[in-house]
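Lab notebook, bench 4. Still working through the backlog of constructs that have no structural model yet. Next entry is a single chain of 96 residues. Request: give me the structure tokens for it.
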Amino acid sequence: MPVKRSSLSAALHEASGRSIEPAPSPAANRPAESSPTASAPVPPSRVGKKAITGHFDPAVSRQLKQLALDRQTSVQALMAEALNDLFEKHGRSPLA
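Model written out:
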């Protein structure tokens, strides 16, 4: 079993016969931080929503963005329209 080495300061104190008070840990002096598992704030428009993603050719992305510009709407609105069309095509309720 490895023997834990003491610091030079601890060795000198030990040799002098004086006791050593443990130094406060740096973490004890820091203010409480938020948990690393805490997530970023969610915009109100995304509360209760879930992202759906896919990988397509860059031309698909450009065409979708251009269509949104041409129709003065958002890519999000076009995707909702497309998903609702797909759901109805397959006999499902348009939920998007």
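Notes after review: The radius of gyration is 30 Å. The chain has a mean pLDDT of 82. Flag for follow-up if needed.
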